[in-house]
Automatic annotation (TrEMBL):
Residues 103-130 form a coiled coil. This is Conserved protein. Residues 136-158 are annotated as: Disordered. Keywords: Coiled coil. It comes from the Bacteria.
Length: 158
């Protein structure tokens, strides 16, 4: 069962389909809330995650319409509300805060397979953030972000 879950989560990331990534994450959150809540704090955290996800899903619909999304862009005009020239709107906040939430969950007592699933979900949040940023760029008529290479010798090719 867990192997199948892991494969589904990984396949969602590979698909590059933002809506699929978020749908799968919503199912995890709803299931955790229904089956595994052991404290008021845990319930509250899951409620916040689900509320943030709902707002992120609304922004994903808005970014499909460049005219509507320009209003969000204008509302996030201060430098501290922008990252990489793009608005740090509620969808981007969700991806960051939820990845942190998953990181904290990964520190709890889980078996190896559970940790693999959590890690795959974190990777999905990173992939989702990149997919969303690409949609922001498209909606605002900006060029695609340059590919960032990691490594010590970046820019030292001959």
């Amino acid at each position: 069962m867990r192997g199948t879950l892991l494969a589904i989560v990984q396949d969602a990331r590979r698909s590059g389909d933002l809506e699929t990534i978020l749908t799968i994450e919503r199912r995890f959150l709803e299931n955790d809330r229904a089956e595994y809540v052991s404290s008021r704090a845990m319930r509250s955290s899951l409620d916040v995650a689900l509320a943030e996800l709902k707002i992120a899903e609304r922004h994903i619909e808005l970014v499909k319409d460049p005219v509507q999304y320009r209003l969000i862009d204008e509302a996030h005009s201060l430098p501290k509300r922008r990252v990489g020239g793009l608005p740090k709107d509620e969808a981007r906040l969700f991806f960051g805060s939820h990845a942190t939430r998953l990181l904290n969950q990964d520190k709890s007592r889980l078996d190896r397979q559970e940790k693999q699933i959590i890690e795959a979900r974190k990777q999905n949040m990173r992939a989702g953030a990149k997919l969303y940023e690409a949609r922001q760029r498209q909606a605002l008529g900006l060029e695609s972000a340059p590919n960032k290479k990691r490594g010590r010798d970046q820019g030292m090719e001959f």
